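Study this:
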Amino acid sequence: MFRILKKSKYSEARKGKIITKRGVINTPFFMPDATRGYIKSLNNNELHKINIGPMVVNTYHLFLQPGTRVIKKIGGIHKFINWNSPLLSDSGGYQIFSLIHKNTNMGKIIDDKAIFRSPIDGSIHSLTPEKSIQIQFDLSVDMMVCLDDPVPNDYDKDKTKKAVERTIVWAKRSKREYERQIKKRKIKIKERPLIFGVIQGGNYFDLREFCVKELIKIGFDGYGFGARHIDKNGKFLEKILQFTANLIPQDSLRFALGVGTPEDIVRCVKMGWDMFDCVIPTREARHGKLFLWKKDDLNKKNFYKTINIIKTKFKNNFKAIDDKNSCNKTSYAYLNHIFKTKDGLGKQIAIIHNLKFYMELMKKIRKNI
């Protein structure tokens, strides 16, 4: 399923390929977040033009709306959204972080499951490790993630340890259900989805190590770095990321969940991480923030910059935003005008631009390994 093709002489970076039933993925790679089955403001034709391949969809949100029954009826998420490239489904674990740990009014976590209050209509739903895996099989994705308990990095060690223990128990239950579904659905070995365990432990090195060792005993195709990769002040947690990457077997995929900014992706690739996903390029674009190249050398500091196109200083700048490396020939002044008039076209242009930047970034990274 995953094979390493080349390793860097200067870092832990490696280049490889993943073979899925819906095509080959070259690593390292970045997946935009198509949480509810789409990237806001873009249609599939636009995504194909900028060479978007794998994307991430969210188990929890798709379960709530339109509902698993609807997606299962048509034959899976690919047919539902008319997408032929590989898809990875998040387990719903991040919603434990964002909707429960951050807001106890939205649910609670008990040893055998998470209980959520729907942000759509307030209805109550339970999500067990088994149910998460079942939903992901109903979605018929190419890669799936075990349900885990990602706690904030500022939790004390006792709370973090409990989350690690729960994550390991849930991983065991997830793997058992995964194997049951493979048998039940009569899925061939070559067509089975890849499954990822998630490493928790906050910023505690011993807990991360314990979690990795226990997950390896269970056995997964890949292992993800769980919870946030930055502290509450936005500082990149370099030491714990490097430490965790070194614990993961060489022949396993390493998934840096939620990473991130261009410089954080470059850092993580050098540590040996293979996979990345984040809302940054699309979310920032909707607020007028664009990523622009400054240098071709990714080893140099400040190889890119960001601008806020809404600022008045761009009102009379008629140069193309990026006339070398991007498909965006729109002028600063014109995009500034569109954003000022609050038309959705502005967000669309900005999102296309940022996603193109990220695809070019990953292409450069692979070329340099």
In short: The mean pLDDT is 94. The longest strand covers residues 14-20. The chain has 13 helices and 16 strands. The first helix runs from residue 44 to 49.
